[in-house]
Amino acid sequence: MATEIDAIRTAILDEAPGDELGALPLPESFRAAVVRADEQEMFAGVPSDEKDPRKSTHVDDIAIPELAPDEAYVAVMASAINFNTVWTSIFEPLPTFGFLKRLGKESVWGKRHDQPFHIMGSDASGVVLRVGSAVRNWKPGDRVTVHCNHVDDQDPTAHDDSMLAANQRIWGFETNYGGLAEIALVKANQLMPKPAHLTWEEAAVNALTNSTSYRMIVSPNGAQMTQGQAVLIWGASGGIGAYACQYVLNGGGTPVGIVSSPERAALLHEMGVEHVIDRKAEGFRFWSDEHTQDPSEWRRLGKAIRDRIGRDPDIVFEHPGRQTMGASVFVCKRGGMVITCAATSGFMIEYDNRYLWMMLKTIKGCHFANYREAWEANRAICEGKVFPTLSRTFSLDETGEAAYEVHHNLHEGKLGILVLAPDEGLGVTDPEMRERLLPQITLFRRHDA
Ligand code: NDP
C-alpha cells in the first residue's frame, strides 16, 4: 500500500513543482534511526571499543512533531554518519537524553525534543516540504543541505558569532529529530542550497565536517591560515581531516597529513597532499605507558616533519586528543597555533606547558561553525572548489553498521546514508559541472572500491 512518504518520494524523484509538493499530505509518522532512553545503560561496564552501535541503533516509526513558526520539515533524501553519531550510539561520554531533557525545559517548542527516543543525525540533503509561518527565505520544493548549528536567534548571545550563543546546540546530537530520518525538523537558519552538481548522497555528507574544517583553518574564529603556512593535519583522510587538507591547499598552504596506512597515504597524494606521514609505519608511541609520555617520540615526529618540509608547522589541526596533544604542542612552530575541536582518544589532556609558554604558542578551541561560516563552506562545495569525500553509502536500516565502521576507524572520508533516495546517483541538476569535476568528486569512492 502506497503511503504518504511514498507519494513524497515519488514527487521529489519526478521533480514535481514546489506547490505540488507542499500540498501533499504529511504522514502521521516516519522512519528514523534512534537510540532509546530505556537502553541508555546497556553498555555499562563495557570497554569503549566493545560498545557496539549495531546493538543500540534501531529504526523506529516516530510520530511527526508539530512545526514551530521558524522551522521547516525536510524530506531527507540522504544523510551521513558523523563521529557524534558514534558518541550518541555508544552513550559516551554521556547519554544524549540529558541534553534533550535540558532543551525540553527551555520552552514550549523545546519540550517536543524531550522524548524516550533520540533521532540521531547531524547532516542531511533533501527537499523542503513545509515551512513555518515565520520562515521567509525558503519554500516547499527547495533543494537543500542542512547544517547542524541549532541556535535560538532571539537570544542576544546568539549575535556576532552564534557559536558563542548560550543556547547553541548541535542538531541531531543535542536536539532531537535529526537527519537520520525520512523527515527532519530543522530551524530555517540551518538551511543551505544543495550543490547542483552532486547526488543526494554526495550533498549529504559535507555540512558538518566541511564547515568545522572551514572554521578551524580559514575563519578568523579559527586559525585563519595565510598563504605559505604549513599545517600538520591529524587524521588527514578522515571526516574533518580531508576537508582541512583541501582548505590548506586552496589557501596556498602546505599540508602535512598524518594517516595510518599506505592506502590512506596514496589517497592523500592523489588529493595533492605531497607530504604525508604514516604514523603506523613509523611506529610513533607518544605514551610509554598509560600515565607517561615519551618526549623523544615528540622529537622524532618533529624531525619527520622537518625532514619533509624543512620547518615546523605554523598550525596543528588537532582532534585525536589525549594520544597526540603532547606531540602537537611540542611540534608546533614557535608562535604557532594548535587548533583543536575534539579529543577522540580521551579529553583529559597532558602536554608540557614549557613548550607552550616559552615558545609563545597558542592552543585554541574550536567547535562547528556559525551560519555564515557554514554558508561559505557550502558555497565552496557549490562552486566546485571543495569536493565531497564520500567513500561509501549504507541504507537507513544499516545506520548501526555504518556507525560501527566509523567507531573502529574502518572508513575513509565520509559514510553516507540513503534515506528516501532509492539509489545512489540521483539528484544532480547540473550534469555538465559534474562531468567536469568527476575525478575529484569520486576520488574517495574509487579508493574505497
Ligand atoms: P573520523 O573517524 O572520520 O576521522 C578521524 C581520523 O583521526 C581517523 O581517520 C584517524 O586517522 C585519526 N585518528 C583516530 N584516532 C587517532 C589517534 N589515537 N591518534 C592519531 N590519529 C587518530 O572522525 P572525524 O574526522 O569526523 O572526527 C574526528 C573527531 O572530531 C571526533 O572526535 C569528532 O567527534 C570530532 N568533531 C568535532 C567537531 C566539532 O565541531 N567540535 C566537528 C566534527 C568532528 P588515521 O588512523 O589514518 O591516522
Q: How are the secondary structure elements laid out?
A:
Layout: H1 4-13, H2 18-23, E1 29-36, H3 53-56, E2 58-63, E3 71-80, H4 83-90, H5 97-104, H6 108-111, E4 117-119, E5 124-131, E6 143-146, E7 149-150, E8 169-170, E9 183-187, E10 191-193, H7 200-204, H8 207-217, E11 230-233, H9 241-250, E12 254-259, H10 262-271, E13 275-278, E14 287-289, E15 292-293, H11 295-309, E16 315-318, H12 325-331, E17 337-340, H13 353-357, E18 362-365, H14 371-382, E19 390-395, H15 399-407, E20 414-418, H16 431-441, H17 443-448
The protein binds NADPH dihydro-nicotinamide-adenine-dinucleotide phosphate.
* Assembly status: single chain
User: How far from one another are the termini?
Assistant: 37 Å
Strand content: 15-25%
Number of helices: 17
What small-molecule ligands were found?
NADPH dihydro-nicotinamide-adenine-dinucleotide phosphate
The profile of the biggest β sheet is:
7 strands, mixed
- Quickly give the structural class: alpha/beta
- Radius of gyration using CA atoms only: 22 Å
What does this protein look like?
The chain has about 450 residues and is α/β, with parallel strands linked by helices. The chain contains 17 helices and 20 strands. Strands 3, 5, 6, 9, 10, 19 and 20 form a 7-stranded mixed sheet that branches. The chain is globular and about 65 Å long. The two termini are about 35 Å apart. The mean pLDDT is about 95. It binds NADPH dihydro-nicotinamide-adenine-dinucleotide phosphate.
